[in-house]
Amino acid sequence: MSEATTVPSKRGLQLRSLISVLLIIVVWEAAARAGLASVLFLPAFTKVIAEWWSVCADGSLPADLFTSLFRAAAGLLVAASIGIPLGIAMARNRLLHWMFDPVIALAFPSPKIAFLPIFILWFGIYSISKILLVAFACVFPILIGTFAAASSVNRVWIWSATSLGTSNVGLLFRIVLPAAWPRIFAALRVALPVSLITTFTAEMVGGGGGMGATLMYAQRFFESATVFAYILTMLGVGLLLDFLMLRIQEAFPAWSSPS
Amino acid sequence: MQADRLSYLWSPVGRIIPLIVLGLIWQAVSTFKLVDPSFLPSPARVIYAIGDLLTGHEIRDNLLVTLSRAAIGLVLGSIAGVWLGLMMARSPIFRAYAAPIVGGTYSLPKSALIPLFILWFGIGTVTTVCAVFLACLLPMVVNTYQGVHSTPRVLIWGAEAFGTQPQGMLWRVFLPHALPDIFAGLRVALGFSFVLAISSEMVASTNGIGKLIFMYGENGAYDYMFAAIACVVVVAFLADRLLLIATGKCLRWHESSAGRELA
Questions:
Q1: CA distance A163 to chain B (A)
Q2: Model pTM score
Q3: A78-82 contacts: CB < 8 A, separation 24 or more?
Q4: Does one domain contain both B18 and B87?
Q5: Using CB atoms, which residue from B194, B210, B237 is nearest to A106?
Q6: Are residues B56 and B133 part of one domain?
Q7: CATH number of the domain where residue B51 is located
């Protein structure tokens, strides 16, 4: 194709990415300074950064962030510790598969946030309800991924191991888990952003502290700079987690799933 | 063998049995008052509430409001997403400009933008539609980009050799090749559209199913709250299945359709 010859160098492309980000910030700042939008709608970028610094300095944003990340991590942990064993068990046992499959089929596509009022009713508005809702939201992708991974383990390996006298426990830890791990890891990677989204959303809807609750609170009092500061922080957290996941995958090439 | 003896369990009727068993356990728990019945309404009461809701207007009207908001956001987001993904895949310069914006918004939980949209658009349909739009946009962009970008050169060369005009490449090569990825993105986007529509209604709406569920919860009408949630689950399940069936029909020509299963 003719356009291949006009493609700029890699550095040129990176420069354009940088320009694009800078352009947004400049336009944002200029629009706010020129008074094109009221301060309520669009506080200047510099003001948002100043506000971000002040909520960081007084410790409220780090505390909220810690609360939210703790809830997301705890929920993900609960989901993984239920989803991975159950997924493997379902792949190895047809009766378990039969029992859980309809429930999963019904629950997987359902919007989990709709269950938040039930979780609040049962577990209050603080961390426990959030953690369990996150676990509820994350368990299905992990479960489905693990089930698919464990049921596609090469049967010949399992047969060979069994005929060489490997016990059931040995089969699990020496054959099934290692063979299925790349796809289980991929499922965990899918569940990670789900855990963050669910935590933030549940906090926004249900209150009870954390990033989402403070964000909604700031919006109700029309503290626009705080709203922007929190959104930018969430964006940063999302990017950071993406980056971390990428590094983990680079560090363990065997974990990347062959897709 | 065992598989034959148990095959009736895998029939459509057999697959409902676990759900019925679950309902019976639930009923037993509430009959024997293992859990405070005010916290866990019995299935009988929930089913009664479902019947009551289905005969009335409340659930139908609010569900329609939510579904139309989700649908508008989904359709707009998908169209814009496919276009953006296509542009990014075909133009390296456009990709360079758009990549940081797409990357940044991709990893941002979209519900975080709801407060911002409330500030900008107030409470109501626009806020919800905007949130759904953005949530659906990103998976469509990423999937379309991957699908178009991974088009093998052989396909392009082949089409060129058969005399396909450059403007025909889009419809004859790139989009058909990306179609499986686009449908995969659509399934993700469909799920997001429900989540965002409902959560945005819970915080920023005066109607819609999200608001309705929350209202029942606040008024202590827990049987109705469970019933409304059950309706949402069923609707989301049916929408997902319909999309899978449509995907199967549209991709019948594709090699992946042989191995595709409902899951």
A1: 21
A2: 0.86
A3: A78/A131, A78/A132, A78/A134, A78/A135, A78/A139, A79/A134, A79/A135, A79/A136, A79/A137, A79/A138, A79/A139, A79/A142, A79/A191, A79/A195, A80/A138, A80/A142, A80/A188, A80/A191, A82/A135, A82/A139, A82/A143
A4: no
A5: B237
A6: yes
A7: 1.10.3720.10
